[in-house]
Amino acid sequence: MNENVVVSADRLADHLGEVRVVDVRDAWEYDGIGHVPGAVNVPFDSFRDEESDAPGTLPGEDAWAELLGEAGIAADDTVVAYDDTHGVFAARFLVTAEAYGHTDLHLLDGDYSSWMREHETSDEAPEVEPTTYEVREPEHSPFVDHEEVEAAIDDPDSVLVDTRDDWEYEEGHLPGARLLDWKELVDEETRGLKPREELEAILADHGVTPDKRVVLYCNTARRISHTYVVLASLGYDDVGFYEGSLTDWEAVGGPIETSSESSE
């Protein structure tokens, strides 16, 4: 991803005919509440593996290719994704796409509720011509395993970031992890990201600075997807994405802290 990963509603409205817009809400929301004109519906649950030992993880290359092909998306398309939850579910879609080699990926700044305030909506699904979606090897993968996370814990040049709620953090977190609830980066009024200067100040207050290697985790990799996109938009270029997150860490017997001292 790059610094242009987040796009404004106004910019999207000006370029609707040039991009593929993906709505990751449930089908009943897409059909019943309406959607961005021309958007295709790829519900969140459709691109998560819920049957493996690590629920919520990547769906697999074949499943992903079939899903996007049925949605009429090609590997070279410019894709803009949105949801109605400040972008956290849409961000997971983008991270999944990046994992399978898609490069031209963007998050709508805000969500459907904010889009509705000033822009046109539609209740008609577009006609979709299926494609043969080509999964590619990504040029760079941010994914890290538990061994790399373990190494980051003792690395003074790395910062481990827990993006969950404070009560989850207090119940148990990885040793030395800083607490940064992903919602701290969201403006409740606009439903999009806070201004760049404010984002940078919040991150710095949590010890998350561009000179550090940043390693993100949550429970099942949904919430870290949003933080990952935010960091990409700010130009952070050394970010580790712990796909297995706390689910994997506990499965391999990784140590857990229960105090809140590391959030300070």
UniProtKB/TrEMBL annotation:
Keywords (alphabetical) are: Repeat
UniProt xrefs under SUPFAM superfamilies = Rhodanese/Cell cycle control phosphatase (SSF52821)
Entry keyword annotation includes Repeat? yes
* PROSITE patterns hit by this protein: RHODANESE_1 (PS00380), RHODANESE_3 (PS50206)
Q: Does the keyword Cell division apply?
A: no
In this chain the Rhodanese domain maps to: 15-124, 154-258
Q: What InterPro entries does the entry give?
A: Rhodanese-like_dom, Rhodanese-like_dom_sf, Thiosulfate_sulfurtransferase, Thiosulphate_STrfase_CS
Q: Which Pfam families match?
A: Rhodanese
**In Gene Ontology terms, what is one molecular function of this protein?**
thiosulfate-cyanide sulfurtransferase activity
User: PANTHER family, per this entry?
Assistant: THIOSULFATE SULFURTRANSFERASE (PTHR43855)
The protein, known as = Sulfurtransferase
Identify the species of origin: Halorussus gelatinilyticus
Q: What is the lineage of its organism?
A: Archaea, Methanobacteriati, Methanobacteriota, Stenosarchaea group, Halobacteria
